[in-house]
Amino acid sequence: MRIAATNADLRIIMLSNQAADGKRSSLHGHWSSRMAFVLAVTGSAVGLGNIWKFPYIAGQNGGGAFVLVYLACVVVIGMPVMMSEILIGRRGRRNPVATMELLGKEEGSSARWRWLGAMGVVAGILILSYYSVIAGWTLAYVVKSASGVFVGASPDAVNWQFSNFVGDWRLIGLCHTVFMGLAVFVVARGVERGLEQAVRFMVPALLVLILVLLGYSINSGFFGEGVSFMFTPDFEKLTWNSVLAALGQAFFTLSIGMGAIMAYGAYLPEETSITGASAAVVMADTSIAILAGLAIFPLVFANNLDPADGPGLVFQTLPLAFGQMPGGVFFSTIFFVLLAFAAWTSAIGLMEPAVAWIVERYNKTRAQATIMTGLTIWLLGIGSVLSFNVLAEFKFLAGTIFDNVDYLTSNIMLPLGGLLIVLFAGWVMCRNSTSDELGSSGVLFKTWRVLARFVAPIGILLVLINAVL
Ligand code: TRP
Question: What does the pLDDT read at residue 195?
Fold first, then answer.
């Protein structure tokens, strides 16, 4: 009760601040520095998407051509969407729903833009429902690695470990529960105390471990095969569905299209360069995905595995490599700890739009809002837990429940959200509002505007129409 009253007080202070100097400030605090913002966005971007999802999606879609389309999507569509999302967030300074409603009115359009924010809140909840299940696997793999079961293990033994593990719904359900508990814990603590600390050491440390793996891969004797699988495009294999998968992966891995970056942008100080921050995040995220692919595919070929094997790919290749390495128990344990951390910092971002919305809209404390959101996500996640065992044969549309939630969010909701975001920033907002935030009228601003008004929307529409309709 007392804290709820504090929230209400804050809101009054916020509104009067706005009247005084015309600039809004956020209810939830601000990042302590530009570096803190870049770190937090990088922490949300770098996650299971880079290390778990990118390799298996690339594998399922035939490699080279897919990777090329993915890179193109990141640069021409991902970058302008990310910049638009940050600038909208910073201008509105609220949760994505309220920000879209406010700016929709302020820019002379409609309060109904709030539904774009609402779609983001829902997308975040749906993504985290299965993301948490996979993140739970990484927790279990920390324990497995430390126990030494992978030392000198054969490909069959590692496969057996994996299928046995995911076949046990109680066990992976427990891991999902533990992971959600960790996510709720950090989010409940609030923006600065929770988010910043976690990211500071995780991304650099993860990079080091991937380089260790890469070193092993280069010596595996199959590095050439891995490189050519990833970079020799065979456009015959490229269907519209693979192009959509590449677009969806670009959105997923950059955390864009659902208002998470908008929510983070709301805490961004006025003077930070949005272009610079976006470029840094995009580069860090893309390099980590490519390096992970380069580390994993040679191992796939060296062990006669199938690159199209699906969600188990990293869990079946990396333990093999670690099992052969001197000091493998140590490296393997650290690697899965870091992967769990990477997933953790992403989970925080996935919850943020929902939590910020509940706090502002229903006047709840951050802790209450986080627990409510966490419970909803946990419950939805049971569907994905069962997709790998009890309900593995229960298939419709895109496949299992897990496959459908993944397809709906990555391939439909995120691109659609991204489309509406660039349309809003490029066409609804007036030129001055955007140049005000992006801070220049030079070449960079003009390039962003052309990408946001024409290239990105047309690109997204073309892919969505051809693949879905
Ligand atoms: N980018 C994250 C990853 O690669 C997943 C993700 C998608 C995400 N959307 C997000 C994370 C929004 C935080 C916020 O693993």
Answer: 62
pLDDT average, residue stretch 433-447: 88
Distance 41 CA to ligand 1 centre (A): 9
The partner residues of 396 in beta bridges, in order of sequence, read 399
Rounded Cα distance between 45 and 52, Å, is: 13
* Ligand 1, atom nearest to 257 Cα: 9
Band of pLDDT at residue 16, cut at 50, 70 and 90: very low
Task: Give DSSP secondary structure letters for 312-377.
Answer: THHHHHHHHHHHHSTTHHHHHHHHHHHHHHHHHHHHHHHHHHHHHHHHHHH---HHHHHHHHHHHH
* Torsion sign across C-alpha atoms 288, 290, 295, 299: positive
Ligand 1 touching residue 294 (CB < 6 A): no
Give CA 7 to chain center in angstroms.
29
Distance 47 CA to ligand 1 centre (A): 7
Beta strands in 137-215 (DSSP E): none
417 ligand 1 Cβ < 6 A: no
Query: What is the spatial distance between Cα 85 and Cα 447, in angstroms, rounded to a whole number?
Result: 16
The DSSP letter of residue 176 is H
Q: Does ligand 1 lie within 6 Å of residue 346's CB atom? A: yes
Tokens of 461: 């529409």
Q: What are the tokens at 128?
A: 């985290």
- Atom of ligand 1 at shortest range from CA of 252: 7
42 CA → ligand 1 middle, Å? 10
Chain mean pLDDT for the chain: 91
| Cβ atoms 54, 307 nearer than 8 A | no
Confidence of residue 220 (pLDDT cuts 50, 70, 90): confident
Q: Using a 6 Å cutoff on CB, does residue 358 contact ligand 1?
A: no
Global pTM reads 0.92
Is the pLDDT at 8 greater than 60? The verdict is: no
Q: Which of 251, 255, 285 has most ligand 1 atoms within 8 Å of its beta carbon, as the pocket-test mutant? A: 255
- The answer, yes or no, to whether residue 324 has pLDDT greater than 50, is yes
Mutate-to-test residue for ligand 1 from 39, 119, 127, 264, highest number of ligand atoms within 8 A of CB = 127
- Condensed to tens digits (0 to 9), the pLDDT of residues 252-305 reads 999 999 999 999 899 888 888 999 999 999 999 999 999 999 999 999 999 999
The minimum-distance atom of ligand 1 relative to the CA of 350 is: 14
